[in-house]
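quick q for whoever's on today - can somebody do inverse folding on this one?? i tried earlier but teh output was garbage lol. tokens:
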């Protein structure tokens, strides 16, 4: 699968994310934050790309990727949401436009989790986490319009279908 950024821009983004210590290091997370800050500060760069959209759900668009990382633009239709999940790899994201509601959870067993916190993520917001978790969360677009976010994952998109390791069902809350 080829990313939709120009080859030159893909190369620059992927080069910026290189760390001699891999995608589980502080250096990598700092580089991913820097890339995300640059991208969310220039929403017109992302918004003018030919991004796939799916009403009512989110659409993943590969921007760039190699054997170590993948960079995705997620276009969130009104009412769309991820499952409640944890990641098998590092996960960084930034909000380009719209508002994403992020709900955090605590596992009570291997398949169930309870909500512990909820935050509205506005344009410009950037976060990174290592898979040292658990980092169980769910992301939703509860607004009436579309939202766009950029996600950088520490996995090879050719080897894994997604960054999700475990999915949960919410109980209580």
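ok took a stab at it. sequence:
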């Amino acid at each position: 699968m080829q990313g939709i950024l120009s080859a030159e821009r893909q190369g620059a983004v992927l080069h910026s994310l290189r760390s001699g210590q891999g995608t589980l290091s502080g250096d990598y997370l700092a580089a991913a934050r820097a890339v995300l800050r640059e991208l969310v500060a220039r929403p017109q760069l992302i918004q003018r790309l030919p991004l796939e959209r799916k009403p009512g759900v989110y659409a993943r668009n590969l921007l760039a990727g190699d054997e170590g990382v993948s960079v995705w633009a997620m276009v969130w239709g009104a009412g769309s949401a991820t499952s409640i999940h944890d990641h098998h790899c590092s996960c960084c994201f930034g909000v380009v436009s719209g508002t994403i509601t992020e709900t955090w959870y605590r596992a009570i067993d291997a398949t169930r989790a309870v909500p512990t916190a909820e935050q509205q993520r506005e344009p410009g917001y950037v976060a990174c986490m290592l898979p040292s978790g658990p980092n169980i969360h769910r992301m939703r677009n509860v607004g009436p319009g579309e939202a766009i976010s950029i996600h950088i994952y520490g996995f090879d998109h050719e080897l894994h279908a997604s960054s999700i390791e475990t999915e949960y069902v919410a109980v209580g809350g």
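fwiw The first strand starts at residue 58 and ends at 65. also The longest helix spans residues 26-40. so keep that in mind when u check it
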